[in-house]
Amino acid sequence: MILQRLFALALLALCAVLAVMAWPYQAAFSYEPVGPRAYPLLMLGLMSLGLLYLAIRPTPIVRKDDEPELDRESLIKIAACVGLLLVFASTFEALGFILSAILVGVPMARLYGGRWLHSALVVVGMSLFLYWLFDRVMDVPLPLGLLDVLEN
Amino acid sequence: MDTLSYLGQGFGVALSPYNLVTALTGTLIGTVVGLLPGLGPINGVALLIPIAFALGLPPESALILLAAVYLGCEYGGRISSILLNIPGEASTVMTTLDGYPMARQGLAGVALSLSAWSSFIGAFIATCGMVLFAPLLAKWAIAFGPAEYFVLMVFAIVALGGMAGDKPLKTFIAALIGLFLSAVGIDANSGVYRFTGDSVHLADGIQFVVLVLGLFSISEILLLLEKTHHGHVAVKATGRMLFNFKEAASVFFVNIRCGLLGFFMGVLPGAGATLASAVAYMTEKRIAGDKGKFGKGDARGLAAPETAIGASCCGALVPMLTLGVPGSGTTAVMIGALTLYNITPGPLLFEQQPDIVWGLIASLFIANLMLIILNVPMIRVFTRILAVPNWALVPVIAIITAIGVYAVHATTFDLFLMVGIGIMGYILRKLDFPLSPILLGFILGGLMEQNLRRALSISNGELGILWSSPISMGVWVLVVCMLSLPLLRIWRKRALQRRAMADA
C-alpha cells in the first residue's frame, strides 16, 4: 500500500516536471490550431488525475502463490543484475559483442545459481554461436571490438 | 466472390516454397520461444522484427514469419501449461485447469494435439469471420474522417480498461503512460523536439522494439531472479501422440461455440484472448453441468479455452487490418512491424496490398496445420527444452534481447534505454500494473494525436467536430458504456458484499 502511494506520488511529481518541460513547446509558426503542446499536456493531465486517485485510494495488490515476498537477498540480486546489464550496455561496443557477452553472461549465470565451470562453458559457447548466427548468417551487424585484430 | 478469389491469391502467396519454409521456421522458433520462461508471443514477435528486417525479407514473408512465430509462441505456451502446470501467460491459465490433469492421466500427447486442433478450428472459424466481415468493415471504414478515427482510438483505450476487469484504474494509467511516451521525439507537424532532453538519440522517438523488449524481456529477467527455481518436473509425454476421431467429435460443438465467441471477443478492442478463454471455459462448464469432469481432465475443458484463444487471436487481426487500430499487445507489435516496412494498416490496405492481407490470412491456416503435424515428431524434443535450467537460459535471453535492440539502430544508447525501461517495467509489474496497455497506448498515441490535430485543423479549432457525425456520436456512446462498466462492476460487488454482511 505504502509503496503504491509512494510510486503514485513519484510518478505524479514526474508528470509535473514533464508538464513544465512541455510548457514552452510552441511551433515557431504554424498553420494549425493545435500545437505540439496540447496532446502531451492532455495525457499528463489525465495521468495525474488517475495517479492522484491511486495515491488516495491504492488498490490492493494480488500476490500470486509462487511469488515470495521480496527480501533483502533478492533485492541485492536484482540490483546486481541491473548493474550487469548496464555493464553489458557500456562495454557492448568497446569490448565487442563476444567479450562483453562473456564478461556479463558468466556472472549472470552465477546469479541464477549456475556453477562457475558450467556457466562459463554455456555462456562462452552461446556467445560464439550467437555471434556467428546473427552476424554471419542473418546479417545483423554486431561489433567485434577488441577481437577486431583476429579477423584478417 | 471477390473475397474468395483474393483468398485463393493469398494461398498462392503463402504456398510458395519460400514462404512455406519461412512459416515452418517461424513456427519452430515460435514454439521454442514460447516454451522458455520469460519469453512470450509479444517479445518473441518483437525480437524478430529487426531480424526479419535485417534479413531483407519482403514484407509479406516478414509478416508471415511474424504470424507463424506468434502462433508458435502460443503453442509453446500451451506445452508448458499442459506439461508443467505453469501458464506461460494470462490467457493460458484456463488451459492448465484441464490440460494438466489430462497429462497426468497419461494423455499428454492427446492433450497437446487436441489443443492444437481446437486452436486450429478456432482460427478457422475466425478466419471465415474475417473473410466475411473484414472487407465490409474496410469499406465502411473509408467513410471515417480524422474525427471518427480519434474517437475510435479513444474507444480502444477505454475498452481496455472496461474489459480488464479487476484493475481498470491501473490499466488506464498504463495506457496513458504509453500514450504519453509516443509523444517523445520530434513532432512531425511543427518540428519541435519534445522531451528529448537535447539527446540526438531520442529525436526519433523511443524505438518500438526497445520499448517492447525492455518492458517485457528485461522485467521478466529481473522477475525470474526472485523465483527460486526448483527445476519443475515435466509430465513425460508418452503413449498416443494424436487424438482419435472420437475425442475430436466429442469436442466438436464446443469448438464451434467457443470459436464464434472467441472471434467476437477478439474483434472487440481490449477484450482479447485472456477474457475470451475465461468466458469460454465458464460457459462450457455451465453447459456441461454436473455431468462434466471439468477441472479433472475433461477434454472439453481443454478445448474450450484453446478454441477461444485461437479464434480471438485471429479476430484481433480484423480491427488491426481494417481500421489500423490494434486490439491487443501482439497486434500492436505487428503494427509496429508493418510501419517498419512503411505499410499503414487501414481500410486502404485491402485495396492497395491484397497480397499482404490475404497472404497473411492464408498463412495463419498453414501455420496452424504445421503445428499439429509438428507436434507428433517434435514433442519429445520440446519437453527436453523445458528441462533447461534458468541459469543457462537467462543470460542467453539477455544476450539475444540485447542483439534485438542493437539491431534496430546500432547504438548503445538504445541498450541503456532498454535497461531503464526494463527497471520501470519491473516496478510496474511488482505494483500489479498490466504492461500490454502501455504498448497499445504507445502504438495508438501517435495516430491519436495526428488525427486529433487533423480533425481540429479541419474545423479550425472548433471542438464540435469531434462529435458532429453520427458515427462519432455512436462511438462516444460506446465509450461512455465502456467507462461505466467498471463502475457498474464495483457497484455490484459492493451490493453483494452488503448482502453477505446482512446474511451473516
TrEMBL record, chain A:
**What transmembrane ranges does the database entry give?**
38-56, 76-104, 116-134
Pfam families given in the database record: TctB (PF07331)
- Where does the DUF1468 domain lie? 6-143
Q: Which UniProt keywords apply?
A: Membrane, Transmembrane, Transmembrane helix
Q: Return the InterPro entries for the record.
A: DUF1468 (IPR009936)
Query: What protein name applies here?
Result: Tripartite tricarboxylate transporter TctB family protein
Q: Which organism is it from?
A: Pseudomonas peradeniyensis
Lineage summary: Bacteria, Pseudomonadati, Pseudomonadota, Gammaproteobacteria, Pseudomonadales
Automatic annotation (TrEMBL), chain B:
Respond yes or no to whether keyword Electron transport is given for this record.
no
Give the DUF112 domain ranges.
20-440
Per its UniProt entry, which superkingdom is the organism in?
Bacteria
According to the record, the segments passing through the membrane are 20-39, 45-71, 110-134, 140-160, 172-193, 205-225, 260-281, 327-344, 356-379, 391-419, 431-448, 468-491
- The question of whether Protein biosynthesis is a record keyword is answered with no
The entry's keywords: Membrane, Transmembrane, Transmembrane helix
InterPro entries, sorted: DUF112_TM (IPR002823)
Its name, as the record gives it, is Tripartite tricarboxylate transporter permease
Q: Per the UniProt entry, what species is this protein from, by scientific name?
A: Pseudomonas peradeniyensis
Top-level taxonomy? Bacteria, Pseudomonadati, Pseudomonadota, Gammaproteobacteria, Pseudomonadales
